[in-house]
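Researcher: Next entry in the queue.
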Amino acid sequence: MSISRSEFGRIVAVALVVAAAGVGTQSVEAGSFSRSHQASGPNGGSVARSRVVQGDGAGNRSALRNRSWTTPAGGSGARSASNVRNADGSLGHDSSIAASNARGSVSSSGGFDRSADGTLTQSRNTTVTNANTGNSMQSSSSYSADAGRSRTVSCYDAGGNAISCPAR
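Model: Structure for this entry, 168 residues:
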């Protein structure tokens, strides 16, 4: 038995419910584990996090981690990461992050998969936006054994028009 992406989606939903359920909760059942924690700082910042691990005893295992935060200065963000390992040797990882503050925002998502025969594929998409200018950078990268590695970077002004990307 392998853990499908739709089953993993249900795990994500459970993790979000667990994270919202309360401060410092923990649950352990046969083949699974979950934990969540929330905290607030004296100046208005906060953090919430959760973790869910599930296994079926037959070599299939999944894990999900979520974290969200706010800062006293008005910044906020969220990060999610998931891992799946199946008894046939296949595995996968997906992660995403989104954060913003007065200076701008960033969002990135992607992951990799390894099939049972060892074939790897990877992809990641990232967007960064400057709050002052509205300019943004979009980056996309991927890898597969057949196509090799590819990466594209594009930059845009606040109106969506292509512009030259700044030098590193």
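Model: Residues 5-21 form the longest helix (17 residues).
Researcher: Noted, moving on.
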